[in-house]
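Could you help me review a protein record that somebody else here produced? This is what I was given.
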Amino acid sequence: LADRFGPMVASIVFELTNDEMEIKLIGKKEYQKKKKVGMSSYALILKLADRLHNISDNPTMKMVDDTLEIMKHLLAARKLTKTHSMMVNDIIAECYTAKANALNNKQQMVS
């Protein structure tokens, strides 16, 4: 990978690759919280962009709740750049929008 795309791309790909053994040991949500805190700025931008896309595309309530917990942990545990902070805030806003939409849909089903 490094020979083809350079060491920076290879390094980011390595950072973004999940450690399945670690996930089995500590659980996926704890793994994600821990991993995001230690990522490079470049890798974190990609992770946050991916999460923003995923949370904007009909997420489950478990995904929304997990995402809120992960984002709040990230805000508390890591010094973020302005760009990171904006992305985290956008993700949190999308989570609350998804929660509101789910509540509205539930209310419409009842009435």
